[in-house]
């Protein structure tokens, strides 16, 4: 960020559009590599060692909770300082964040190192022959925690500066290496300690790349970084609520899986988790939009609330435009898809669940957008507080629904929770951004009708009527989107998207 850069240069429409494309590339390219690499890894490593590798992937992702929400907090706070033209306060803010992140990540890494053996022996219940390797894996992961956290913090700063090009170059290379790295080592060793060490080395390099990018983007800051105690409270309060949300969110998301495993049968959990995992893979597409939206909203909520409202409503429309037809097709042909992919039992048991998950994933896609507005508006506490209210109600509802209706009962309770959060976040969005409230109120009947349009596909219709009904739905969806949902300017923007992306500068400078 040069000294002359301001909020307007970081939120130009062409730059935001290009950054969305960068984010999509960062999601899609590693996923394509994973599709090719995972079958080869499962065959070469065997079930037990591949399970350990999968666990390492999960741990590396979950270690981001140890940043205490600093990445998201920095995106919001740096964006706000730029909007308020308070760039002179960035050295104290970033220096305090870096020191705090390093301190807590070192403490977290030490705790994981010391607990490695008990975790392997008592919590994970690894086979005795794999326990030494698994303990080595945990210790390597413990060493990587400070690098993972510092990388998350640096990435938060780059997001505030709208440098999603730099972020996603590193993200793609790191994501591809996450799967190709173990494959490249297989001719030399199958020892998981060495394989995970190679993955940790990749994380170290990614973090160094993020830090170097921040160093280059902030020449006026890098020589003046320092600790400033008063900045700690802003980081800790905002980041603390983000951390609580990061803990409660996955807890609510996977409670149904644990309850099913404990009350029904572990052998049936796959019929539930496979359609769930398949449909939730759509969320990174929305996250690609929201990742760009969040810093832009953080700026415009302070500088131009009318533009903030336009960006927010455009993102809500994007959900309908991108996600609705995919979720509809999944709901319409859930049984056939599951049968073709995994066989008859998955079609019979998992098909009805896939319909419910497809509808829930579509509704929850709006929640990604409204949550970004709520957090950008400085209220990261609202959703964790709602989650704390939901959890004691959600658990007994799950037990009752599973007892009455089995797996479909659990999916229905999950869907009800998504709907509650959808209604709450719509209300919260209107309250935080009154400029969008009138448009949101007008959209409620249309959203309700759109959600209701999924329901005919839950009826036991033969394939031919469902094909006809899906075709009519898609045609109506396209016509309504083009004539009613999108304004003239938005239609023109879509028609000229390729030209805009070519003209858009790669940076805000």
Automatic annotation (TrEMBL):
Membrane-spanning intervals of the chain: 20-41, 47-70, 90-116, 136-154, 166-186, 192-211, 232-252, 258-275, 282-302, 314-335, 356-377, 397-427, 439-461, 467-487
Localization per Swiss-Prot or TrEMBL: Cell membrane
Domain of life: Bacteria
GO CC field: plasma membrane
The name this protein goes by in its record: Membrane protein involved in the export of O-antigen and teichoic acid
Record membrane topology: Multi-pass membrane protein
Main location: membrane
Pfam families cross-referenced by the UniProt entry: Polysacc_synt_3
Keyword Membrane: yes
Keyword Cell membrane attached: yes
Entry keyword set: Cell membrane, Membrane, Transmembrane, Transmembrane helix
Coiled coil stretches, renumbered: none
């Amino acid at each position: 960020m040069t000294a002359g850069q301001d909020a307007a240069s970081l939120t130009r429409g062409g730059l935001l559009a290009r950054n969305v494309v960068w984010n999509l590339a960062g999601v899609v390219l590693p996923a394509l590599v994973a599709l090719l690499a995972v079958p080869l890894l499962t065959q070469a490593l065997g079930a037990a060692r591949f399970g350990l590798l999968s666990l390492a992937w999960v741990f590396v992702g979950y270690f981001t909770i140890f940043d205490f929400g600093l990445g998201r907090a920095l995106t919001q706070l740096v964006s706000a300082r730029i909007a308020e033209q308070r760039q002179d306060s960035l050295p104290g803010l970033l220096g305090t964040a870096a020191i705090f992140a390093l301190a807590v990540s070192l403490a977290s890494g030490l705790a994981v190192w010391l607990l490695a053996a008990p975790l392997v022996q008592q919590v994970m219940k690894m086979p005795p022959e794999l326990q030494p390797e698994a303990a080595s894996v945990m210790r390597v992961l413990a060493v990587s925690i400070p690098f993972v956290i510092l990388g998350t913090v640096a990435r938060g700063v780059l997001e505030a500066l709208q440098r999603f090009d730099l972020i996603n170059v590193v993200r793609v290379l790191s994501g591809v290496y996450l799967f190709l790295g173990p494959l490249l080592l297989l001719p030399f060793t199958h020892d998981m300690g060495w394989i995970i060490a190679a993955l940790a080395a990749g994380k170290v390099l990614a973090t160094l790349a993020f830090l170097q990018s921040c160093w280059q983007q902030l020449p006026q800051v890098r020589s003046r970084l320092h600790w400033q105690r008063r900045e700690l409270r802003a980081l800790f309060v905002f980041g603390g609520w983000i951390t609580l949300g990061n803990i409660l969110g996955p807890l609510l998301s996977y409670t149904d899986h644990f309850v099913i495993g404990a009350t029904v049968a572990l052998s049936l959990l796959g019929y539930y988790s496979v359609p769930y995992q398949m449909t939730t893979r759509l969320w990174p597409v929305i996250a690609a939009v929201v990742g760009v939206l969040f810093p832009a909203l953080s700026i415009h909520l302070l500088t131009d609330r009318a533009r903030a409202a336009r960006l927010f409503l455009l993102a809500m429309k994007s959900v309908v435009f991108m996600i609705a037809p995919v979720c509809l097709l999944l709901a319409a042909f859930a049984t056939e898809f599951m049968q073709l992919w995994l066989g008859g039992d998955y079609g019979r048991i998992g098909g009805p669940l896939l319909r419910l998950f497809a509808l829930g994933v579509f509704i929850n896609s709006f929640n990604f957008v409204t949550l970004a507005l709520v957090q950008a508006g400085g209220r990261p506490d609202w959703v964790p507080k709602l989650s704390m209210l939901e959890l004691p109600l959600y658990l007994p509802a799950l037990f009752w629904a599973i007892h009455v209706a089995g797996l479909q009962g659990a999916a229905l309770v999950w869907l009800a929770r998504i709907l509650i959060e959808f209604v709450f976040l719509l209300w919260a969005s209107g309250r935080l951004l009154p400029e969008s409230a009138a448009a949101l109120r007008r959209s409620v009947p249309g959203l309700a009708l759109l959600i209701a349009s999924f329901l005919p596909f839950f009826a036991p219709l033969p394939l031919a009527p469902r094909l006809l009904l899906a075709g009519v739905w898609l045609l109506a969806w396209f016509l309504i989107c083009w004539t009613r949902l999108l304004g003239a300017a938005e239609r023109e923007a879509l028609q000229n998207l390729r030209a805009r992306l070519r003209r858009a500068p790669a940076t805000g400078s």
